[in-house]
Amino acid sequence: MPTRQFSFRFPASLGYLTALRHAVQAFCTDVPASQTPEEQVYQMQLAVSELTTNIIVHANKRNPDAVVAVEGTGVDGVVTLDFYDWGVPYEMKTPALPDPESLAEGGYGSFIIQQCVDTVSYERDADGRNHWRLEKAFGDTGGT
Question: Could you confirm whether domain 4-141 is CATH 3.30.565.10?
């Protein structure tokens, strides 16, 4: 199957999450050579939703003109999504569940993302952009 590519650029607004989730669903369904399990597509959509929400709410909350760019590649049943933004840098820490006794409404995003995809990486590139990468293998090639 040929390599598939995907590109989505949008204002850093939660109003665009639904459109992004639909685009990711279509892309993840199109990439694998075999039938894609719905649960795996949903996991990728959930990871994308959590990551994008964090990018919008935390990294770009002070910039009304902020933009988020997503580029995807799909080949041999593996989807790679790269997210770029110019917001506040992320401080990497090991994702963990918040204390259940605290009844926290937030803080689960990083943990959820890690559980939904095979690989998550982050770097601040030389141009000052945040670069997140999510990778997931679909179908019979592995994946969770």
Answer: yes
